[in-house]
Each structure stands twice: as C-alpha cells, then as structure tokens.
Design a protein that fits this description.
alpha+beta; Beta Polymerase, domain 2; Hydrophobic Seed Protein; 8-stranded mixed beta sheet; 18 helices; 14 strands; about 45% helix; about 15% strand; disordered N terminus
Length: about 350
C-alpha cells in the first residue's frame, strides 16, 4: 500500500537519504518517526533503512557519526536531530531480550517483518510517498496495537516488548490487539521478571508522564501484573508529572538521589495534608503542582501561581489546601492581602481556626 504524502521531514532528510540514493542504494525513513508524524506528534529521533552494507554507510558518512558494526548501524547527531541509519537486517537469535545473531536482509520488507508492532513499520521514500507493506494504516486508523507476525514468539523472544505494548497502549491511547491481551491473560506476564528493573523504570516514567495513567493501572490490576512491574498501589490519581505518580505507589525500582528527594518531599507534604503559604518559596513548581494534584486542588493551579508571585509573604498559620478551598482563582491575591492586612492591624488572630473562619465568612 502506498499513499501520496507531503512530509516536512523530507526537507530535513534529503541530505542523508539522497546521499545513500546518489551512491546507488535504496533508502527510506522508517518506524516511529513516521508513526508519530501521522499522529501529529513531534519527534527528533529518525530511523533510516537502506540496502547499503554497513561498510559502505561508513564510507559515505565518514566522520559525521559513529558506527555500530555488530548491529549494522550508524548514528549521526545533527541540527538537534538524532539519526540511526541501518542496513536491512533480520534477527536470527535472541538472548536476554537482545538479538545476539543478526544477518543482513535482502529486501526492505524482510527488515520490516522483524519489527515489533505494525504501527512501527511505516516508511517514507525520498519523494514523500508513504509506504505501508503490512497494512499498518488500518491499525493506526482503528487505534489498534498489533504485533508483527506471531505474537507469542515476538513477545517471548524480547520480553521488553510486553512493556512497550502497554506503554504504547497508554501513551498513544491504542487498544491492545486480542492476541496481546490473550498472551497477558494467559499469565505470561511473569516473563517481565526477566526484564531489568532499569528498563521497567524507564518505561514507567514515559507512561506516568502521559495523560493516560488510569489505563495503565487498570491493565496492571486487571491482569495481576503489579509484582512483575515491581510496584504496589491502591488509589492513584493523575498528577502534574511522573513524580506525583511515583509518590503515590510503592516501587522496588532504581531511582536517582535527586528523584528520591522530590518523591519523598511530595509524600511528606501530602501526608501533612498541605503546604503552608510561607513554605511555598522553599519548593519548586514540580513539587507544588504534584502536591496540588494529589490533594485535589489542581483546578486552583492558577491560584498557586499567583501566590508564588507574591512578595513579603507573612507566616500565615494556614495551609495552602485550606486556603484554596474558600478562594476563587481570580480573587486569590486580593484575599491574601486582605488576610495579611487584617492580621497586621490586629483585627484577626494569626491562627488556623480564626483564619479559616474568616475565609469561610467572606
């Protein structure tokens, strides 16, 4: 299947694609970049497939990048983009979720058949024509995530694909094909025990930064996969970013020292049921916005921003959660100054009960 497609990436890619073609080889933009382009998602990671042997690729682009001959791959970083140029290849044998025997493939279609999901098999030629050998456009339009070839074989030889399937389902809001569901439902998710914790953490970061974390926790709970992801959770609400999600669950996964500081600070403030106004300058927006999400005051986020702009904050004996319960977004600055002035003039005692009573009766 081919479709005419004007693609702005052709302008970016003419240099690399045309150099391969001008040297007598085939070359296509392929995979995730094309998928994301069709979905309207910006990306800086571009894969190019060619029938040029790796030694020829190295000659053509000598000095522009770095070769990984064992993978028939050449990597270039230019103008803010990351390019991976690979010879057509097929993976013969896997060990520990990685191909340990790779051979050159004769045709582009052979290369596509080694890939994980149909929506990652799109290609664009030098003229901007969309090439779809595996009818992936049907899956893209139907928002279905389907494995290329035999589902059990593909997900078993590389267990990271199980996590990738769930990640794509969440971040792109695609439905898992019944074959993938059946694989997981047949208790084969235990294979995730063979996936390194570092990889799980990386994939979960991407899911937790998406807008569809409810789907993730639904799938994990429905198919009893908590222990395979090394997490435990009860009720989890969407938050500003992944740190707010990590703060709501238990995880036996590797975190950096900085990540743990942020997560533990969010947990502590939430457990204390709020943050006092005079404490706001102590924390950055990531912490403040995640706390607001978890405590259910995300609608008042503009209020938080307004408070962050205030000068000379008085040590008011009231937490931000309680303060925002009584204040409209547009009135927060005015009311804050009103409370501050009343305390300074002696009309109001600076204690939580009196301030809350004052706010309640405004």
């Amino acid at each position: 299947m081919t479709l005419n497609l004007y693609c702005g990436i052709i302008i970016i890619m003419n240099d690399i694609v045309n150099e391969l073609i001008n040297n007598g080889y085939e070359a296509y933009i392929v995979g995730g970049y094309v998928r994301d382009y069709l979905l309207g998602i910006p990306s800086k990671d571009i894969d190019i497939c060619t029938n040029a042997p790796i030694n020829e690729i190295m000659k053509i682009f000598k000095g522009r990048g770095k070769a990984f001959k064992e993978y028939f791959a050449y990597h270039i970083e230019e103008d803010g983009y990351s390019y991976d140029i690979t010879t057509y290849r097929k993976e013969i044998r896997y060990r520990r979720n990685k191909p340990v025997e790779i051979k050159e493939a004769k045709t582009f279609k052979e290369d596509l058949l080694r890939r994980d999901f149909t929506i990652n098999t799109f290609a664009i030629d030098q003229h901007g024509k969309l090439i779809d050998f595996l009818d992936a456009k049907k899956d893209l339009d139907s928002k279905i995530l389907r494995v290329v070839g035999n589902t059990d074989k593909k997900l078993t030889e590389d267990k990271t694909r199980i996590i990738r399937a769930i990640r794509f389902s969440c971040t792109l809001d695609f439905e898992l094909h019944p074959d993938i569901i059946n694989f997981i439902a047949n208790k084969k998710a235990y294979l995730l025990n063979e996936v390194p914790k570092e990889y799980k953490k990386s994939e979960l970061d991407k899911i937790f930064d998406s807008n569809n974390i409810k789907k993730f926790f639904y799938l994990v709970e429905k198919y009893n996969m908590e222990k395979y992801f090394n997490i435990k959770f009860d009720k989890v609400v969407p938050t500003y970013n992944r740190y707010g999600i990590w703060a709501q669950i238990e995880a036996d996964l590797p975190f950096s020292k900085k990540e743990l500081e942020i997560i533990n600070t969010i947990k502590r403030i939430v457990n204390e049921k709020g943050i006092f106004l005079n404490q706001i300058p102590e924390y950055d927006n990531v912490i403040l916005y995640n706390v607001a999400s978890i405590l259910g005051v995300e609608e008042q986020m503009k209020s938080l921003i307004e408070i962050l702009k205030l000068k000379n904050i008085v040590d008011l004996d009231i937490d931000i959660y309680t303060f925002l319960k009584y204040i409209n977004v547009k009135d927060v600055k005015k009311v804050y100054y009103q409370v501050q002035r009343s305390i300074m003039e002696g009309y109001l005692q600076n204690n939580k009960d009196d301030i809350e009573y004052y706010l309640r009766n405004l």
